[in-house]
Each structure stands twice: as structure tokens, then as C-alpha cells.
Amino acid sequence: MHFKVRAAAKEDCKDISRMIMELAVYENMADQVKTSHEDLERDGFSPNPFYECLIAEVPDEHKTKDGYTVVGYALYFYTYSTWKGRSVYMEDLYVMPDFRGKGIGTGLMAKVAQVGVEKQCVRLQLSVLEWNKPSLDFYIAKGAEDLTAKEGWHFLRFHGQTLDTLAKEAPKD
Amino acid sequence: MSNFILRKAEPKDVSDILRLIKELAKFEKMEEQVILTEKELLEDGFGDHPFYHCVVAEVPEDKQSSDGYTVVGFAMYYFTYDPWIGKLLYLEDFYVMKEFRGYGIGSDILKVLSETAVKTRCSSMHFIVAEWNKSSIEFYKRRGASDLSDEEGWRLYAIDKDDLLKISAKKR
User: Fold this and answer.
1) Which of B60, B26, B44 shows the shortest CA–CA distance to A87?
2) Is the dihedral of CA A109, A127, A39, B79 positive or negative?
3) What are phi and psi for residue A79, nearest 5 degrees?
4) CA of B17: which chain A residue's CA is closest?
5) Cα–Cα distance for residue pair A53/A73, rounded to 1 Å
6) Inter-chain contact B155–A84, Cβ cutoff 8 Å?
7) How is domain A4-126 classified at the CATH fold level?
8) Among this protein's residues, is B140 annotated catalytic?
9) Complex ipTM, two decimals?
10) pTM
């Protein structure tokens, strides 16, 4: 099946929002999605974007039963390692279930890798849930290394109330 | 010693920042992995498109370190994005020189960063810690941090430059 990978435009945010929700529904976490397509437009298409996005598009004759031609996306941003410098972090990679097995995921990821190399990034990072075997296999086949296993890295966060509490205690200038 | 200030890093601070980065890497037993240079730090933090932001802790001259330094701590952060909740503040590095610990410098840095996160509409502040680094994990958990790797099973993966080149070169 022929498909095209291109940089997302502001008008694609409705499709990106749709696919973000599809993935959340599949993971039984739809109530956790707080971003709207307007948020995505503001955060990705202003002079100082917080992310970049690539989308995968199929020709009209292969559109989904609901009439969509945008069938996958990869959302990424640039990070910085104090050891190695510029890196690219791939936050989301998603292809609609009916369009899997056709190289679209690989195509999206290849384009993220290309953008990263062009921007002089020394590596690409991502995170995967330990039970997600198909995704783990997909990334390991492309050379991904488990740094949690190798170096013991854990993800931590300050969220919601704990973040607000810390913020209120900040010293005044 | 309550006599310290926290301020935004300036271009003149890059050599102190690199010094502190190397000290932290040494503590994490990874000193030889630091290949970043002052020139790159300058370009990447203070050029047209900053890849990071930095806060430094400074003491007065009469309180300088045994080696004569007045910049004694730093935190490097940048903004990331979660498609479900939007902007996040990501804490990349956070370090206070050993002889200046226990005075609340680290605590204040964390509070200033939390305030920055809230002011810039971030839902969360994320970071990674090595699981053997018990004192750091304690420091964060005491202040309410949760471990997403333990709680939800997230694992960090990386693909290095050589493999990135291979992936990007393959034709469909």
C-alpha cells in the first residue's frame, strides 16, 4: 500500500488529536487525555513549538471506513544530554490498527531518525511499557537498548498537588 | 550558611556549568562519557534556539569553595510534551557541590524549578534517577515524587547515532 510521511501542518491537529484519543481508548485511559486539538495547535505551531510531528497519509482510495486518510503519527521533541549534547526524544509513535504491517511505523520512525541526524542529534530516546512486547520487539530490532536494564534509570515525577506545594515554597527574589 | 543566590545562568557561566556536569558524572561513575564542550554548551544554551535552560547557585566570594569557585550548584532543564496533558518541565541535571550540601541549596533549586513549571503551564516535572542512587531517590520521594518505572512499568530506551543512520537510510 502506498503511503506518504510528511511534517504535520496546523490543520492536521484534529487528526492527531483523534489518533491520540484512539490510542488512549485502546489503553483504557481515555479519561486521562486532557489536550484538545486547539492545545496541540497552540503548542506545536507557535513561534516556539514544544513538539514536532510527522504524519502518515494514504491515498483517498485507501481511506479508513470513517473517511480518514491520515492513519499514523510520530510526535517528538529535542532534549539535551549534559554528557553528549543534542538528542531527539520520540514521545509517541502510532499507526491505526487496520494499517499496520505495511511499513508505516518504520517509515515514520525513519523520518524522525533523519530529522534527528540533520539536527546533529547524537541519539534518539523513547520509553516503552515493560509489558508491551510487540513495541519492545519493534524498537530492539532497530537497535534500541534498554537503559533501564543496563544503567538502572527510573522515571520519576512531581505532579499536580506535589508540584503546586513545592512551587508555593519557592524563595522570593 | 543561608547566604547564596539562585539566578538564571549566563553565557559566562558555561565553564562552571561544564565543571559541575563533570563532577556529577564522576559521582555517577560515568565521567568518561562527558563529551560535551564549553563551545557546544554556549551554542546550545545561549544561541537562537536554546536546547536547555539553566539555573545556577552562587555564594559570595568570602564563602568560595576550597578550589576558589563561587558557582556551587546548577540545574539544567527543558520543556517536553505529553500528548495527553501537554507541556512538561524536564529536569536533566541537578547538582550541588559536596561541601555546600545541607544548607537548603538543592531544596531551593527544586522549588524555583517547580515555580517555573507552574508559571509556564506545565502539568508535571519529570526526571530520571539511577536506581542505586538511594540518597537522591530519598531526597525526591520525601518531597512527593512518584516512581513511574515502578508504578507503571516505564523503561528508557536509546538508539545511538550509528543505528539512527541505518534506520534513516533504508529506502521503502
Assistant:
1) B44
2) negative
3) -125, 180
4) A82
5) 7
6) no
7) Aminopeptidase (3.40.630)
8) yes
9) 0.89
10) 0.90
